[in-house]
Amino acid sequence: MAYTTINKSTAHFNTKLYTGNGSTSHGITGVGFKPDWVWIKNRSNSYNNAFYDAVRGVTKFISSNNPNDEETNANELTAFGADGFTTSNADRTNKNNDSFVSWNWKGGTTSGLSGGSITPSGYSYNATSGFGVYKYTGNGSNATITHGLGKVPQLVIIKRLNADEDWCVFTYDVTVAYNNAYNYLELNTTVAKTGDGGARWGVYQNFNANTFGIGTDNGTNANGSTYVAYVFTSIQGFSKVGKYVGTGSATASPFIYTGFKPAFVMAKKTNEANTAWIILDNKRANSSNPIGVRMFANLNATESTSSNYCDFLSNGFKFRTTDNNANDTNDNYIYMAFAEAPLVGTNNVPATAR
């Protein structure tokens, strides 16, 4: 019996490495699809994490490691292609001889959404893979936005575009409803989960199979301001948003079951501040375990390497470190993971570890 309907994970998410050439038209191919969200990081130098998506349009840049508003720059990503993207000569995306990583997600559906109290001005979503990008204008009141994914969103990342504002992150694993009070995280900072009285996310019940909710806070819904939202829900055998508890032991570390061999993992401690959003993937690492090469969503830092940090297994991942960012004693963490291969696909062939 098949475990998932997505046999080829790289048809929906893929990590692509490349070397910059400093030209004004550097075409990056081999992604395997036309990406609707491209996240680029210069591995060699301390340049900002660069976010581009097809909904906001080419040359539109925002960064996960600062609160800055959107900027338009002709030297940024200039095209989304059928098998990748093209960038001009910005140092953060194409500095000559520098090494880069790009993480790429496929959307697809760009019309037909209806319902919700705010209609997105643009969107691209992929119900098969549980991912969507939505641009909207705030109204300053508790509101709903239709997402089209057919399942409850488990992770929502929102950035205000026309003003400096910290990124807002909602996950079901850190957001607890009690008298309309919720917790949130910030992608550009190291803060722990923080309560805000529901101002960022509005009514908890608005997170359902049809909509996600926003409140009255400027971070998600200032009247007349523009925003972009990246929305995710877990898809069996392909993606997982979840949580785990650290042990503080490199030998008795937690095993985190995902149901697939991971290609990408991002994790963040939720109950303690001054901890980073760490990112691991299967392309920058060695061809076998352990994986020790890390990037950071909240930092412009270069790539960091440890000799023995994490194992990617056939059905999940296991940290081999006592690093506070990944495996501190009795601390709580959330994670988002995407598959290299399902544990078992429709061909009933099981995945193997690295």
Task: Briefly summarize what is shown.
This protein is mainly β.
What key attributes describe this structure?
mainly beta; 5-stranded antiparallel beta sheet; 26 strands; about 0% helix
Write up this protein.
This protein is mainly beta. The chain folds into 3 domains: 9-105; 122-232, no CATH class; 239-342, no CATH class. Helices cover 2% and strands 39% of the residues. It is built from 2 helices and 26 strands. An 8-stranded antiparallel β-sheet has the order 19-26-21-22-23-24-25-20, with no helix packed on it. Strands 10-11-18-13-14 form a 5-stranded antiparallel β-sheet. The model is unreliable at 177-181 (pLDDT under 50).
Number of helices: 2
Beta-strand share of residues: 35-45%
- Structural class from helices and strands? mainly beta
* First-last Cα distance: 24 Å
Q: Any idea what the shape is?
A: globular
Average pLDDT, to the nearest integer? 91
Query: Which residues sit in consecutive blocks of at least 5 with pLDDT less than 50?
Result: 177-181
Largest beta-sheet details? 8 strands, antiparallel
What are the SSEs and their pairings?
Layout: E1 13-19, E2 26-29, E3 37-42, E4 50-53, E5 60-61, E6 71-72, E7 77-81, E8 84-87, H1 91-94, E9 99-105, E10 122-126, E11 131-137, E12 143-146, E13 155-160, E14 168-171, E15 183-184, E16 194-195, E17 211-214, H2 218-221, E18 226-232, E19 239-245, E20 255-257, E21 260-269, E22 278-281, E23 291-296, E24 304-313, E25 316-319, E26 332-342
Antiparallel strand pairs: 1-9, 2-8, 3-4, 3-9, 5-6, 7-8, 10-11, 11-18, 12-17, 13-14, 13-18, 15-16, 19-26, 20-25, 21-22, 21-26, 22-23, 23-24, 24-25
